[in-house]
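ok so i was messing around last nite and threw this chain in just to see what happens. nothing serious, just curious
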Amino acid sequence: MLTAPLYAQRQPVTAEEEAYNFLLAAICAGRYRKGDRLVAEDIAAEIGTSRMPVREAFRRLDAQGLVTLRPNRGAVVSGLDIEQMNEVFEMRSALEGLAIRVAVGKVTERHLILLERLLDDMDECRNDTAQWVVRHRIFHEYLCSISERPRLMKQIVALYSLIEAPMRLWLEHGEKPLSGREEHAQILAALRTRDADLAERVLREHIEGTLPALTLFLQSEQ
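result:
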């Protein structure tokens, strides 16, 4: 079982980093949802730090669009509206398409074996939405990491942080089944051909094909 991104495994090295990672994980997991107020004192007490690292983490999350800082009123979880969700998926499609295009020239049999294992991990937890979403993200991030483009990966990872919570909500309460093995296997098949145009097209169609049903669900929740 693979439960952490393979391209960048590291531990928090500062109190600010620890607070940031805690908040990011909580927002992605849906513990804090759109409109929820984040109280620095409460969060600091929970993770055993002072308020200052938490406030610095708020600033980082604000820069990412996950949190909105309000003067003298603290931080609130931002969430995405429908237009913003469309924009994020458009960006994902373009950036991941670029990543797989570059990855085609670098992929090895070892990469492909690991990607198959990640698909097995997704299959093993199809009855556990939270774990499936995490492993789905790991698959996509590892796939894109084969490109060996760290700045590109930083952007892709940031986009996933924006959509993980609504994706989880959709899969928990919508009608989409937790599957996707066939769709993701098509991506691997395209990657094996070493045809950059084909690989990019298949991946982009996969990403963009998710958006209509996700959008309908989010509209029904508003």
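not much to say yet. Residues 1-10 have pLDDT under 50 and may be disordered.
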